[in-house]
Amino acid sequence: MYTLKGELKVISPTQQVSDSFKKREFVVVDASGQYAQTIQFQAVQDRCELLDRFKVGDSVEVTFFLRGREWTNPKDGQVRFFNSLDAWKVEALGAGTENVKSVNNAETFVAEGDDDLPF
Question: Other CB atoms closer than 10 Å to residue 106's CB: what's the count?
């Protein structure tokens, strides 16, 4: 399981892919590194509802699984590989939520790679 914090850029409507499968795609911008990364996730089945309480611009933390699969095209036999980031949990970050880091937390004062503490 992985986590990523960022700002919601896109929240797509739920798509009913088949009678028994639905998904909802959303995009989070991770600006924690030198270059911002625009990451697309998907929520499937009952997880589609995770995004109902959010709007574009909200700061969130996404807990997700990295999934991969192999597919063989039945027409020509060509093998392809696909990856997906499947959201498990989406939590709000920001003022007024329990997910905000305390200002006294040392991590908020040390930029990534600037940690010169001896422990």
Answer: 9
**Band of residue 95 on the pLDDT scale cut at 50, 70, 90:** low
* Fold of the CATH domain 2-98: OB fold (Dihydrolipoamide Acetyltransferase, E2P) (2.40.50)
Which pLDDT belongs to residue 94? 79
Q: Is a pLDDT exceeding 70 seen at residue 79?
A: yes
pTM, full prediction: 0.74
Determine contact, residues 47/85, Cβ cutoff 8 Å: no
User: Which 3 state secondary structure label does DSSP give 57?
Assistant: coil
Give SS3 for 62: strand
The total of other beta-carbon atoms located within 10 Å of residue 64's CB is 21
Phi/psi for 82 (5° steps) reads -130, 145
CA–CA distance, 110 with 117 (Å, rounded to integer): 10
Domain boundaries, the chain: 2-98
